[in-house]
Specification:
Beta-galactosidase, Chain A, domain 5, five-stranded antiparallel β-sheet, 14 helices, alpha+beta
């Protein structure tokens, strides 16, 4: 259920941010003017709604509880709005909303009160409670506090447009469809789509022309009466959410400790991740996380892999399902794209053109497989997926060829180093000295892509060494060249100690802006015996990057900005131009912890936990990067997905990093490297999974870790 991007949009993520056309040159010809670009889609604001999720079903509501058909409101199933309006009136009056809150990832509770005309004082005597579920079920209950029996007319007005989510988002949903009375409810039809609402108990009266169901309810003193509505496409069965049946093993995952924020964060993270799981229709045993609701309820390869990697402490089933699903989409056969995992373009902020998420997904594939193997993925599953990982690594080796950097190539061009990122050799105008190696015209070498490629080469080589097949030595040799070249050519010197470049342009010039993507330079990857792969930066520059990420330009007090506050074109609401992206914040925290910069990591961690409190521990994919002030609150982004797969998994990722869990299931060991300063005080994590068995750990206030539950035979590493 993904929102289709219009022609003026650069990517799926960019469905919120259109690519701007260049203005005409001054004095240009007046004839045959360039047609104006299509107007970008302005999405309805989603930051104030309550979103119940159990994919492929959603229920989106405002805090009023009534579904009025405006904006995003309604029940959805598989990308189509099945019911847009559900308004309750009691005794001819609309109840007054007093509270709305989420009960779980897939349900919400709305409470309203009603004062009857016969009431003598100001106190309402009727409470109207509505429990709404993502699966299309709603229970409406009237509670009487009156000392006398009541007989009340209850009316529920229903309507729908049966519009797909793309039409709803772009304001093209159209008018409501005519209804017909059907059994104990209403029915609507449009082309081949039909939807039915049934009521229990059956209504006393139904008016198709008004979409109205009516009851006369007898309420004894102090009694309650309920009506249950069920909304479904005609012929469809109940929603079988993948997470509820496929992740029972993680239901016991919990966190307790001195910091009261860790338990609700982990609880909500697991709930939301479960709610966002989808099954491959042709292979229903394979589950993968959707990117987020309400806009991105489908497969986004790079983000699905990132979320599955962060969720490895819950077990390897999500990782296996995601890898198998994407392996089936992998490009095979001859051609320069052979081995790639296809993916759309992604907005890259104000200073770079959109980048290809397929490149990121292709590089994440072998990384996820290698780390899933360390966490305990069965050998037979690893061997089943190994050929796809080998194809990813062969694509990487072909893409860099004998060059140094991996670069994006223009459409239709071979994205190899000889064509896109290999250094210029001798030629007219060639520079000399350290900056002489330049990317050839046709591709931009992005800093975070080099980090993904470096990690893929090292973890891929580790995987190939253990299972055979492939040029592990060649991958390590190229990774060493990349480290050397990156340290020489991706560092922009300045009086403050320098910074990593966001990218290098085809002519070799660096893009000097400091972005949140620099956090990926610290994300190394898990090797055997609890060791981490080496990073791209040396010790001195790692320390400088840690200082920059922990400074006020990047640390908003709520998390890591996607663009430094002092950079040109900074916008606190910019998707990748200044907003706080939860996934990047989590990557920065874990990378800083691994590099030993606990002060900077702790500051970002506490900022993330404080932000989570304001979002009821359901972190959105992003929010505004405005600087935190005393008594302030993070500003929500009106177009952010919430819940989002990577943001949900980020909560799991950072807590496991604080505990320092580094498993090596093939060797039968697990190493603990907790944060020595114990930023969360005492912390206990229960119900995790290492070597396909329950795993629990406790970190003391002194920063010492102890395993409390583990698989038989699992040994504590050095």
């Amino acid at each position: 259920m993904s929102l289709p991007a219009p022609s003026s949009v650069s990517d799926r993520e960019g469905s919120r941010w259109a690519v701007q056309a260049r203005p005409p040159l001054p004095g240009g010809p007046a004839r045959n003017p360039t047609p104006a670009p299509p107007r970008p889609v302005e999405l309805p604001p989603a930051h104030t709604v309550l979103t119940c999720v159990a994919l492929p079903a959603l229920a989106i509501s405002t805090d009023q509880g009534q579904l009025t058909g405006r904006g995003l409101e309604g029940f959805y199933r598989a990308g189509r709005r099945t019911l847009s309006r559900c308004q309750v009136r009691v005794a001819g009056r609309e109840p007054v909303a007093v509270q709305a809150r989420m009960l779980s990832a897939d349900s919400a509770r709305f409470v309203a009160t009603l004062r009857l005309p016969t009431d003598r004082g100001p106190d309402p005597e009727i409470i109207v409670e509505r429990i709404r579920h993502a699966d299309g079920t709603e229970r409406i209950t009237l509670h009487s506090a009156a000392a006398r029996p009541l007989r009340l007319p209850v009316e529920i007005s229903l309507g729908t447009d049966l519009a797909d989510v793309g039409a709803v988002a772009s304001g093209r949903a159209g008018p409501e469809l005519p209804a017909s009375v059907h059994d104990s409810g209403m029915r609507w039809s449009a082309a081949t789509t039909h939807c039915v609402v049934t009521a229990d108990p059956a209504p006393d009266d139904a008016m198709a022309s008004a979409g109205l169901l009516r009851w006369e309810m007898d309420l004894p003193a102090g009694a309650s009466r309920s009506v249950e509505l069920r909304v479904r496409p005609e012929g469809a069965g109940p929603v079988r959410a993948a997470g509820h049946g496929g992740m029972r093993s993680v239901a016991g995952a919990r966190a307790v400790g001195d910091d009261p924020r860790v338990q609700p964060l982990l609880d909500r993270s697991v709930e939301d991740l479960q709610a966002l799981l989808l099954r491959d229709p042709e292979h229903p045993t394979d589950m993968y996380p959707a990117a987020g609701a309400p806009w991105r309820c489908g497969l986004a390869p790079a983000e699905a892999l990132a979320a599955a990697r962060m969720a490895l402490p819950l077990g390897t089933r999500i990782a296996a399902g995601t890898l198998r699903t994407l392996a089936r989409s992998q490009i095979t056969g001859p051609g320069h794209r052979a081995g790639m995992i296809p993916g759309p373009l992604r907005d890259a902020g104000p200073h770079l053109p959109p980048g290809c998420t397929g490149t990121e997904a292709t590089l994440l594939f072998p990384v996820l497989l290698a780390e899933a193997w360390r966490w305990g993925m069965p050998v037979q599953e690893v061997e089943e997926l190994l050929p796809a990982a080998q194809r990813c690594l062969r694509w990487l080796q072909a893409a860099v060829d004998d060059g140094v950097f991996l670069a994006d190539a223009p459409p239709g061009a071979r994205p190899g180093a000889r064509q896109a990122s290999q250094a210029h050799r001798d030629g007219p105008g060639a520079a000399s000295g350290p900056g002489a190696r330049r990317a050839r015209p046709g591709g931009i070498a992005r800093g975070e892509v080099q980090a993904h490629a470096h990690r893929a080469a090292l973890l891929g080589a580790d995987l190939l060494d253990a299972h055979g097949g492939g040029d592990a030595a060649g991958l390590r040799e190229w990774a060493a060249r990349l480290r050397s070249g990156f340290r020489e050519e991706f560092w922009v010197e300045d009086r403050a100690g320098g910074r990593p470049a966001a990218a290098r342009l085809p002519d070799g010039r660096p893009v000097p802006h400091l972005t949140g993507g620099a956090a990926h330079l610290l994300d190394t990857g898990l090797l055997g015996s609890g060791t981490l792969a080496p990073g791209l930066l040396d010790k001195v520059r790692t320390e400088q990057l840690a200082r920059l990420l922990g400074g006020p330009a990047m640390d908003s007090g709520w998390g890591l900005r996607s663009l430094g506050a002092k950079e040109a074109a900074y916008n606190p609401f910019g998707h990748r131009g200044g907003s706080v992206r939860v996934q990047e914040t989590a990557v920065a925290i874990t990378g800083l912890v691994a590099a030993g910069y606990e002060k900077e990591a702790s500051a970002l961690l506490h900022g993330m936990l404080c932000a989570a409190e304001f979002f009821d521990h359901r972190l959105p994919e992003m929010f505004a990067g405005e600087q935190r002030t005393a008594g302030g609150a993070p500003l929500p982004h009106p177009a952010a997905c919430r819940p989002a797969g990577a943001a949900a998994a980020a909560g799991i990722h950072v807590l496991v990093a604080v505990a320092g869990i580094r498993p090596d299931a093939p060797a039968g060991t697990v190493t603990l490297r907790p944060v020595r300063s114990a930023p969360l005080g005492e912390l206990e994590l229960h119900g995790l999974s290492v070597a396909d068995a329950p795993f629990s750990v406790r970190v003391s206030r002194l920063g010492l870790a102890m395993v409390e539950e583990a698989a038989d035979g699992l040994q504590l590493g050095a």
